[in-house]
């Protein structure tokens, strides 16, 4: 018993004494390989606060700590306002943090015009604004259909499915959102990353792991 307590004390001591680099690697491993966003977040929290630590915001969102996610993405946007993904995740986190409020209340976090260099992200930003500024159900359906039909590459299709799922989750349609998350994971682009992650290879797309975590946590 004494030996077990001693070993636990050593493990706890090592965790608390992790260098920022080691904490980052362990946080990544917990999130990507172990699908443990809460443990990942606790490790990211051992790293000095940074507006470039977007992985912390994603871990917080997947862990259900929406206040921490809002804090991280808002901080990120202060130095990288052109990153459309930061805007979308800030919006989604704010919606989850205040579920009784209408999503339109948080549209200020999404730029009217996106200067993100990636077309799929620019179009996602435009879709979010158009969707939540439109009250017509039929018009919203047209917006979603047109958005999905405009992408052909496996990578873009993955991102389109993911951000459409995030949009619907922000709107409170969790069941429908998960069908798009699952569609995203079924793309060849996502499967390539998942195969790498299953082999403990960190070279896949972190965003694929985000969707995988979201599906696994529910």
Descriptive keywords:
218 residues; globular; disordered N terminus
Description:
With 218 residues, the chain is mostly helical. It has twelve helices and no strands. Helix 4 packs antiparallel against helix 5 (66-79), helix 7 packs antiparallel against helix 8 and helix 9 runs antiparallel to helix 10. It is globular and about 55 Å long. Mean pLDDT is 91; it is low at 1-15.
Furnish the topology, listing elements before pairings:
Layout: H1 2-16, H2 20-32, H3 37-44, H4 54-63, H5 66-79, H6 84-97, H7 119-132, H8 137-149, H9 154-170, H10 174-185, H11 188-198, H12 206-216
Helix pairs in contact: 2-3, 3-4, 4-5, 5-6, 6-7, 6-9, 7-8, 7-9, 9-10, 10-12
Task: Provide a compact summary of the structure.
The chain is mainly α and 218 residues long. It contains twelve helices and no strands. Helix 2 (20-32) packs antiparallel against helix 3, helix 3 packs antiparallel against helix 4 (54-63) and helix 4 (54-63) runs antiparallel to helix 5 (66-79).
Give the SSE order as H and E letters: HHHHHHHHHHHH
Termini distance? 37 Å
- Taken from the alpha-carbon principal axes, the silhouette is globular
**Largest sheet, described in full?**
none
- From the alpha carbons, calculate the radius of gyration and give it in angstroms: 18 Å
Low-pLDDT residue intervals, each spanning 5 or more residues: 1-15
Number of H- or I-type helical stretches: 12
Percent of residues in helices:
55-70%
How large a portion of the residues is in β-strands, by DSSP E?
under 5%
């Amino acid at each position: 018993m004494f030996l077990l307590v001693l070993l636990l004390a050593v493990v706890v001591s090592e965790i608390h004494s992790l260098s920022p680099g080691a904490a980052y690697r362990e946080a990544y491993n917990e999130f990507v390989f172990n699908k443990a966003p809460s443990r990942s977040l606790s490790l990211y929290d051992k790293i000095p606060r940074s507006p470039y630590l977007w992985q912390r915001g994603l871990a917080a969102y997947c862990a259900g700590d929406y206040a921490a996610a809002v804090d991280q993405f808002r901080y990120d946007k202060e130095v990288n306002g052109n990153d459309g993904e930061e805007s979308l995740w800030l919006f989604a986190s704010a919606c989850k943090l205040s579920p009784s409020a209408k999503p339109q209340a948080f549209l200020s976090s999404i730029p009217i015009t996106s200067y993100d260099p990636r077309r799929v992200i620019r179009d996602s930003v435009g879709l979010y604004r158009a969707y939540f500024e439109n009250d017509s159900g039929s018009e919203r359906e047209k917006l979603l259909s047109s958005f999905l039909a405009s992408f052909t590459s496996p990578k873009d299709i993955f991102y389109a499915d993911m951000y459409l799922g995030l949009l619907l989750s922000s709107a409170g349609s969790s069941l429908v959102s998960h069908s798009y998350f699952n569609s995203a994971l079924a793309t060849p682009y996502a499967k390539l990353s998942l195969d790498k992650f299953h082999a403990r290879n960190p070279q896949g797309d972190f965003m694929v792991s985000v969707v995988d975590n979201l599906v696994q946590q529910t």
